[in-house]
Amino acid sequence: MAAALSWDDVNNTALMVKHVIKRDGRIVDFDKRKIVDAVLKAMDVTEQGEDIVLAAEIAATISRIDKDEMSVEDIQDVVEMELMKSPRKEVAKKYIAYRNQRNLARKAKSREIFKEIIEAQATDVTRENANMNADTPAGMMMKFASESTKSFVDECLLSEEVKEAVQNGYIHIHDKDYYPTKSLTCVQHPLDKILKNGFFAGHGESRPAKRIETASILGCISMETVQNEMHGGQAIPAFDFYMAPFVRKSFQEELEKIGELDGKDYSHLYNMELDDYIKRDLVGMQGEERVIQHAINMTVSRVHQSMEAFVHNMNSIHSRGGNQVVFSSINYGTDTSAEGRCVIREILNTTYEGVGNGSTAIFPIQIWKKKRGASYLPEDRNYDLYRFACKVSARRFFPNFLNLDATFNRHELWRADDPERYNYEVATMGCRTRVFENRFGPKTSIARGNLSFTTINIVRLAIECMDEPDRNDRIQKFFNKLDWALNITAKQLCERYNFQKTALKKQFPLLMGALWLGSENLKEDDTIEPVINQGTLGIGFIGLAEALIALTGKHHGESEEAQQLGLRIITYFRDKANEFSEKYQHNFSVLATPAEGLAGRFTKMDRKKFGIIKGVTDKEYYTNSNHVPVYYHCTPKHKAEVEAPYHDLTRGGHIFYVEIDGDATHNPEAIMAIVDLMDKYNIGYGSVNHNRNRCMDCGFENADADLEECPHCHGHHIDRLQRITGYLVGTTERWNSAKLAELKDRVVHK
Questions:
Q1: What is the rounded average pLDDT of the residues 15-25?
Q2: Average pLDDT, the chain
Q3: Range 677-688 average pLDDT
Q4: Cβ neighbours for 725, distance < 8 A, ≥ 6 positions apart
Q5: β-strands 536-542, 587-592: how paired?
Q6: Does an H or E element contain 152, and which?
Q7: Is residue 697 a contact partner of residue 717, using CB atoms and an 8 Å limit?
Q8: Between the CA of residue 159 and those of 22, 169, 489, what are the distances in Å?
Q9: Alpha-carbon span 45 to 41, nearest angstrom
Q10: Mean pLDDT, range 138-153, rounded to an integer
C-alpha cells in the first residue's frame, strides 16, 4: 500500500520551473497539482488504482527541471517518460490514450464545423450571414478562416473575465473573426474627396472624376476597396450632393459637343441657371432654347445610365475574397439644386425599373433623408421626389426613411441656404448603425464610423432573476446583473480598442489614406491611434421583449408597466454608456442590435441551460433589440408609440419596421402614412415591409398573394423577398433557422 501523502508534501518541493506556456500562448504559473491530478486519472482506470506517492514524485521531478518555463506538450512528454521508467508502465499507456483523447476532443468541434462547410450543408454556421454565399470556393475558404480565427481569439486575445462572459452566453462580440486583423467596422465615405482628388489604394490609383459616368464608377470602387479593409458595411452620406457637380459638368460637355457640330460657341450657357433637368420633346423649339433642351435631354440620359451602372455594379462587384457583394448604403434626398434633383430622380427611376430582368436590387440600401423645408412637406422643393421615393419603396422596399427632423437628429449648424449643409445632416448605414455625436471632434456622420460593438444577452440576465418572488427584489437583482454585464462589455470594447489602435496606417491604404477623419495627417508607418477615437464603441442588446416577459409576465407591446420598465432598462444602458465615455474617454453609444446569427445563438444556449420557458425561450429566436415581438398583432400607430421612445436612447443605431398587407405597388400613400408616423412620434429611422414574390428560375417578380407558379416561365421555385436585419436578401434559402422561424411568425400591422 502506498504511503499517505498530503498536498503540503507535494507543494513543499523546491521549484525550478516557474511558468507554463499553454497551447494558446498564454503564460501561467506552474502548478504541480495539475500534473498529479492528470496522473491519478490515468491510474484510476488500471487494476492497481491510484498511487499518489508516484504521482507526486513525477510532479516533483518535473518541477526540478532546470528551466524557467515549459510548454504543456513538453511537460506531458516528461510525464510519459517517467511513467515508462516506473513499475507502472500500464499507466503510461492509459495516460497516452487519455492525452490523445483530449487532443481529439479539442479538434472535434472544428472538424465537425469544417465538415459542414465542405459538404455545403445549410446549417447555422454556413448561413450565419444571409448575404454571403458560403457554398462557393471563396465563401468556403472564408468560413474556414472565420471559424478557425474565432477559437484563436477566445484563447489568445480575450481576457479571462471576458472569455468567460462570452462562453457563458452573457455577451457576444460581433465580427470576432476579424478581431486579429485590427479592422474597424464601417465608415461613411466623404466621396467628394475621392471625386475631387482621386485616390491611391496600394496597387492602383484613380484620377479625379470629370463627368458623371466616372463619378458613379468611383463611388463603386471606393466602397468595394474599403470593404476589403473593414469588417462592416460602407455608406455614402450625401450621394445627391456628391454627384451633383458632375451633372453640371456633363451638361457643359453636351453643350460643347453641340457647339462643335453647329460651329458655335455656347460657353456662355455653361453656368446658366436651370430649374430642373427634365427630358422634353424638341419639336417646336428653336435657337438656344433647343440647344439647351437637347443638352438637358442628353445629360439626363447619361445620368440615368450612370445610376443604372452604379446599381448594377453594387449588385455584382464582389469583395472579401469574392464571396459577397459590398454591404453598401447611400443617403440622399435633401439636395434641392437642379443637378441634385436629377441625381435623385434617376437613382429612383433605376431602382423602380429593377436590375437584369427587372429584379429588385438588393444593394445599395437606399435611404431617403426626410427634412422639413427640403424633402417632406407639400411646399418643399423636393416634395415631388419624396412622393416618387414612396412609390419606389412600395415596389422595391427601398428607399428606407431617415428622419432628420427627429430631435436627436438635428444639428444646430444646419441652414437651408448652406450649399454644404450635408455636413450637418445625420446619415446612417442601411442596417441601422448611426454615428453622429462626437466628444473628440466635429459632430458629423461623414468620415466616421463604428469601431466595434458587443451585444448583451439581457434575456439570460432576466431569467436568472425569475426565482425572486418579490417583484421589486427581482427587478433590483436584474439591474445588479445588468450593471455587471455592462461593465464587462465596456472592458471588452476597450481591450479591443487598445488592440485596434496599434494597427498601422499602411494596413488600410484607402480608409486611412483618404477617408477616415484626420487620417490625412498620418504617415505610412504611423499607428492609427491618433484618429480612431473619432469612431464609436457600440453596446448592443437583444431580446427586450423576452426579458420583460421574464421579469413582469408581459412584453412592452401589451403592458404599460412592462413598457415603463423597458424604458428604464434602456435608459440605464444610455446612462452607463455616457459614464463609460467619460471614464475611458471614448465615444460609447447604445445600439439596438441588428441580430442575425445571434438571434438564435443566445436562444439555444439559454434553452439548453434553463429549458423551455413560455414566452421567453419557447421560440427559436429572441426579438431584435427593443422591437415589439413580430408575432404580436397591433396597429402601426401602436407599434410607433411603443418603439419610438427607444430611438432617442439608442443613438448608436435603431430602426422601426412596419409590415403592411398585400400589393403596395399602387399604394405609395401607405408608405407616406408610415413616414408621417415617424414624423409624429420622433422616430429616427424606419422602413416598410410588404409582399414581393421572386421566381428563382427567371427572376420574374410580382406582389400576388400566395403565388405558386411563375406566370412568366411557369416554374415553381418561388421565393419571397424579405428584409432580415435592415437589408434585403435575394433568397430566404440563405437564412439561418432562427431568422426563418421569425419570418414565419411575422404578422401584418393593421
A1: 78
A2: 89
A3: 97
A4: 431, 432, 594, 595, 596, 624
A5: parallel
A6: helix 137-152
A7: yes
A8: 14, 16, 12
A9: 7
A10: 70
Q: What is the dihedral of CA 478, 484, 490, 495, to 10 degrees?
A: -150
Q: In 3-state terms, what secondary structure has residue 149?
A: helix
More confident call, 356 vs 602: 602
Contact (CB, 8 A) for 693 and 736: no
Cβ neighbours of residue 107 closer than 8 Å, sequence gap 6 or more: none
For residues 199 and 271, the model is more confident at 271
- What sign does the dihedral 460-464-466-468 (CA atoms) show? negative
To the nearest 10 degrees (0 to 180), the angle between helices 544-552 and 471-500 is 150
CB 400 within 8 A of CB 430: yes
> Which among 645, 407, 635 has a CA at the least distance from the CA of 544?
645
- Say if residue 509 is preceded by a cis peptide, omega within 30 of 0: no
DSSP 3-state assignment of 597? Answer: coil
Per-residue model confidence (pLDDT) at position 595: 75
Query: Got the DSSP string for 298-357?
Result: HHHHHHHHHHHHHHHHHTT-EETTTTEE--EEEEE----SHHHHHHHHHHHHHHHH-BTT
Q: How are beta strands 450-457 and 400-403 bridged, if at all?
A: unpaired
- pLDDT value for 507: 93
284 Cβ contact list (under 8 Å, min separation 6): none
Q: Cβ(537)–Cβ(586) under 8 Å? A: yes
Please state whether beta strands 693-695 and 701-702 pair in parallel, antiparallel, or not at all (unpaired): antiparallel
Q: In a 3-state reduction of DSSP, which class is residue 242?
A: helix
- Helices 636-649 & 668-681, crossing angle to 10 degrees? 50
Supply 140's cell numbers.
468556403
Among 287, 284, 286, 294, residue whose Cα is nearest residue 256 = 294
DSSP code per residue over 403-455: ETTSGGG--TT--TT-TTGGGGS--B-TTSBB----SSS-S-STT--EEEEEE
